[in-house]
Amino acid sequence: MTQATGTGKYERLLERCRSLAAVPTAVAHPCEESALAGAVEAACAGLIEPILVGPSARIREVARKARLDLGAAELVDAPHSHAAAARAVELVREGRAELLMKGSLHTDELLGAVVARETGLRSGRRLSHAFILDVPTYHKVLLVTDAAINIAPTLEDKVDICQNAIDLAIALGVERPKVAILAAVETVTSKMPATIDAAALCKMAARGQITGALLDGPLAFDNAISRDAAKTKGIHSDVAGDPDILLVPDLEAGNILAKLLSYLAKADSAGVVLGAKVPVILTSRADSVRTRIASCAVAVLAAHARRGTGAEAG
Fold first, then answer.
1. Rounded Cα distance, 190 and 196, in Å
2. Could you state, in order of their start, the residue ranges of all structural domains in the chain?
3. pLDDT tens profile 53-62
């Protein structure tokens, strides 16, 4: 993702991690330079204690060619990516790791091991993805969910997606997150199911089915992000102009929004999968070092929050 400079929002996340112990992290199949470097960089930053799961000889060869110092990192041998994903998940189930990190395997392969009915890391909640965006033109870290996993979420899916994001925002230090539920318009109409879902989510929050946050919606993007735009439309809202979380109607809208903010608004974009028994760190070869470190920092904060509450949802 394109790197933004000088905003300081990610740096504040890292500052919150400085007093926290590094978290044991199972890194599945880090057999490519950028994937292995991401784990090594996070370890050097004091965020994680990596357990590198995959073909040991291949991992060492990648490290040698890339001049990466594996230090005291533990290597757990697994013959191929499928076995590495399964073994990494098993390390979490055994209590040896509190985070799971994607290496150089397909996301579907790793998440397949996470959701396996008998051997995975199901928590009772639906998995969802959150982008954690450092947008230079916005005054705080902004979460966008779900833009990577749930294609056409039902109302019940959105409850879990929303609660996952709320729990993460609280772990990041937001006392009472503000959630803007996005649609194309700010009025409720049966012609646009997303507006009905938004209204239902707000009522569910009022009834305690979603907790820990202030919800408002439906809100069009301009009304959600700009207090002036909301006032022009006659919308009186404590969320408008100040959301911590943007809950999108479907994956396509969310994916477009997150990438638009990354490439046109020059935002950095960290990513984490929530809803499993532990957070899952997703990084890609296109990610900057700053983005990789931020993704790990977000997951570390979530893991420490989970330690404090004993919760099983990521």
1. 7
2. 9-177+244-309
3. 999 999 999 9
